[in-house]
Structures are given as structure tokens and as C-alpha cells.
Amino acid sequence: MLVTDNGGPYRACVLECWLARHRVVHLHTLPRTPQHNAACEHGHGELKADAQLPLGRCRAAARTALVRLLDSAVRLDHHRLRATRGWRTAVTTDESTPHWSVHVSRNRFYATAHCRIVRAVLHSNTGRARLRATRRAVLHALEDFKLITVTRGGAPHPAPFAEGVL
Fold first, then answer.
1. Segments forming the whole domain that contains residue 82
2. How does pLDDT run across 104-128, given as a tens digit for each residue?
């Protein structure tokens, strides 16, 4: 699965063809909706705060800032204990968690998600409506395979989009 914004390189036909050939489901975030990528947005903020990046455009300062940023990434991934991960680091959690493919057939997931997407966008009249329908279809497929739980404020959120359309 690939999650991207709607930038031109992520919309290119060559990428879409490659993803289809390799059975990768592509999930686009909605424009101006950082909630769709909350973990990444939070991570960016955490990195910037930890690296204490200086303001300015000096080349030497940029090199120093990049080194600080890389050091921060290592520190955050390897050493920061996270309550959401049972007080383990990100690296420890990744190492101890089985890969999703242990639980789900890649081909089966791709076929299910693809069918849901095709059905979901049938009655979408605008680009934004197609993006929303596609997003809901993929999230519903992920939930069906128990790869994610859709929540609102930490509480399970029933999938209202599932009735009739998917």
C-alpha cells in the first residue's frame, strides 16, 4: 500500500501502471486534510522540535541542520519510548510485529480493494467525490482484513459508508 498526497508525480500514469502491475493499492489523501496523515504530520513536528532547526538559508547552516535532523530521526526511532507502542521504541515495535503479509494474501487484498474502489466511484460526479469514495473503499477493505481500526477520538468508528455502496 502506498499513501501519498495528490502531487503530479503521484498521479502519473507510469506510477499507476507500476502499482497495478505490482498489486499495490494507492491511497491518496484529500487536499488540505492533514488528518489523513496525522502520524506523518506529528512525526515531522517531532523531528523539527528535536532537531531544533535554525531559521535561515545559509548553505553551511543547512548542512548542519540536515545532520541534526538525521541524528534526531535516529534518536526518535531507536531511543524514544512511546506510550502508544506499549512503552517500546518504534524500532523495537517494528521488529516484534509480524509483517502484514503473514495475515493477509497480497493478491486477495488487492483484488478486494480494487473491486471496492471500482464500485465506490461509479456514482461519483467530481474528482473530490472520487477521492473520498476511493479512500473510504480502501479503508473499509483494510478494516475487513483487520489491518486497521477506523476510530474517531480513539473510539471505534463504524463504517457508515459500507451500507449499500461497498
1. 39-96
2. 898 999 999 999 999 999 989 998 8
Same domain, yes or no, for 88 and 110?
Answer: no
Query: Amino acid letter at 120?
Result: A
Residue 88 corresponds to which cell in the numbers above?
517500546
> Both 104 and 152 in a single domain?
yes
| pLDDT per residue as tens digits for the range 43-62 | 778 877 887 766 666 767 77
The count of structural domains within the chain is: 2
Burial (CB < 10 A; 0-12, 13-18, 19+), residue 165, is middle
Q: Extract the residue ranges of the chain whose pLDDT is less than 70.
A: 39, 53-57, 59, 153-166
Look up residue 67 and give its three cell numbers.
Answer: 545532520
Final residue in a domain of this structure, among 96, 113, 140: 96
CB atoms within 10 A of CB 156: 10
pTM above 0.90, yes or no: no
What the block records as the C-alpha cell of 91 is: 524500532
Pair (64, 91) in one structural domain: yes
Domain co-membership, 140 together with 153:
yes
Contact 66, 58 (CB under 8 A): no
